[in-house]
TrEMBL record:
Organism, as annotated: Nocardioides marmoribigeumensis
Protein name: Sulfate transport system permease protein
UniProt-annotated location(s): Membrane
Cited CDD domains: TM_PBP2 (cd06261)
Top-level taxonomic group: Bacteria
Membrane-spanning parts: 9-28, 59-81, 93-114, 134-152, 241-262
Subunit and partners: The complex is composed of two ATP-binding proteins (CysA), two transmembrane proteins (CysT and CysW) and a solute-binding protein (CysP).
Keyword Heme included in the entry's annotation: no
Principal location class: membrane
Keywords for the protein's UniProt record, in alphabetical order: Membrane, Sulfate transport, Transmembrane, Transmembrane helix, Transport
Keyword Chloroplast found: no
Length: 268
């Protein structure tokens, strides 16, 4: 039975109101505060050495995490869809753990394992001159962890949909495993991979909790942009905090726009 027009309009009003109060209004207010004096806040933030360092650190951490998740995400997706093995369902459930666990808990767990004083792996690594915690490696690990499922959960449904008939045909004609992947599998899942990578990048740019725990928040050394936003705001440098937060939000919105542009091409 078709729904009455009044029900449709009521649902639209509820959804639009919900998104406006939860997303559009706060982000719009942030944008307004950032540009209330023109571009002065952006210029001041970009001229701040600590903000410059944080932006570079954010780029290094986010791009490294995306690259790692790209390689391991596609590999795990292929393993889950193309192979049968004991513990497959447990592995599939484990992939979703980063979505359900607080990033602060993730940071604390990494701190326990990789700290150089009494961590199970951190102490042996420290003895060989490799510092994990309160340095870039742990920040990359924490960011990689929280963004892990995004590539996998985009690629798995596409792999299931396309099946493996074409891959079997290629192998029956003598194609090797790498040749089958590069010429058959990858072209079929490329838009899912791109979509997952863009989402992973957006998530990585805004990670705060896990990175805050493992980085130590050392100024001009282990601060990402999200940590700078918190420090500047608490130090009453609110215009710089707003401008830094706007740059992060702008980067995330650009990622979402890219995804929106790619989505119709994928569906067509």
């Amino acid at each position: 039975m078709a729904e009455a027009p009044v029900v449709k309009w009521a649902l639209r009003v509820v959804v639009v109101s919900y998104l406006f109060l939860l997303v559009a209004w706060p982000v719009g207010l942030l944008t307004t505060r950032t540009f209330e004096n023109g571009f002065d806040s952006i210029s001041t933030a970009l001229a701040d050495p600590s903000v410059q360092h944080a932006l570079r650190m954010t780029a290094v951490v986010a791009l490294s995490a995306v690259a790692i998740n790209l390689v391991f995400g596609v590999t795990i997706a292929l393993l889950l869809v193309r192979y049968e093995f004991p513990g497959k369902r447990a592995l599939s459930a484990m992939v979703d753990v980063p979505l359900s666990v607080s990033p602060v808990v993730v940071g604390l767990a990494l701190l326990l394992v990789y700290n150089g004083r009494d961590g199970w792996l951190g102490r042996p690594l420290m003895d060989h001159g490799v510092q994990m915690v309160f340095a870039t490696p742990a920040m990359i690990m924490a960011t990689t962890f929280v963004a892990l499922p995004l590539v996998i959960r985009e690629v798995v449904p596409v792999l299931q949909e396309i099946g493996e008939e074409q891959e079997q045909a290629a192998r029956s004609l003598g194609a090797s495993g790498p040749q089958t992947f590069w010429r058959i599998t990858l072209p079929s899942i490329k838009w899912a991979v791109v979509y997952g990578v863009v989402l992973s990048l957006a998530r990585s740019l805004g990670e705060f909790g896990a990175v805050k725990v493992v980085s130590g928040g050392i100024v001009d050394q282990t601060e990402t942009t999200t940590l700078v936003v918190e420090r500047k705001y608490q130090n009453f440098e609110q215009s710089t905090a707003y401008a830094s937060a706007f740059m992060l939000a702008f980067a995330a919105v650009v990622c979402i726009v890219i995804v929106s542009i790619l989505r119709p091409e994928e569906e067509s």
